[in-house]
Amino acid sequence: MNQTLPVHLNFAQKAKIGFEIQGKLPIKQLKRLSESLLSNDGDLTVELKFDRIGPVPFIVGHITAQLELKCQRCMQSMAHPVDLHFKLGMVQKEEQIEKLPEDMEPYLIETDNNHLPDMLEEELLLALPLVAMHEFDCSDYLQKQVLEQQDEVEKPEEKENPFSVLKDLL
Ligand SMILES: [Zn+2]
Fold this sequence. Notes:
Layout: E1 3-4, E2 8-9, H1 11-17, E3 19-26, H2 31-35, E4 37-39, E5 43-53, E6 56-70, E7 77-91, E8 105-108, E9 114-115, H3 116-127, H4 140-154, H5 162-169
Parallel strand pairs: 1-3, 7-8
Antiparallel strand pairs: 2-9, 3-5, 4-6, 5-6, 6-7
The protein binds zinc ion.
Zinc ion binds next to loops.
Family: Belongs to the DUF177 domain family.
GO cellular component, one term: cytosol
Organism: endosymbiont of Galathealinum brachiosum
């Protein structure tokens, strides 16, 4: 049951009556997130449940996606799989934040016309790495440095540098 997610929802009212929804959202609809990506192709897959515990309305969410970040070391594409779970307790004022159950992040509700893609985008942006970088040494420069250091440690008495021959020829 993959449907297109609605843009506007009354979060508090949905929590009051209990509401579940699953669907897809094109990544390109999220402008701020797209700015951090090399490509905004593809969709988010989203599952949301609106409910309440006692007086506290909350949203439980799960987002999966394949994002394409730009590695800040080699500037190449970097696949970033997202599998994000979150639980937001709705508050109308700051004083309510401390009364939230510990496993909930506060989510400020200022209107009854809430923007669903904005909420999802905020959660995704919070979960992105501060500096995207490949886990392996992806930069040629860094790789050379590492190899040179290894050479020094492992082969301190290198007999002949093949490049010295070239140097003589030049
Ligand atoms: Zn890289």
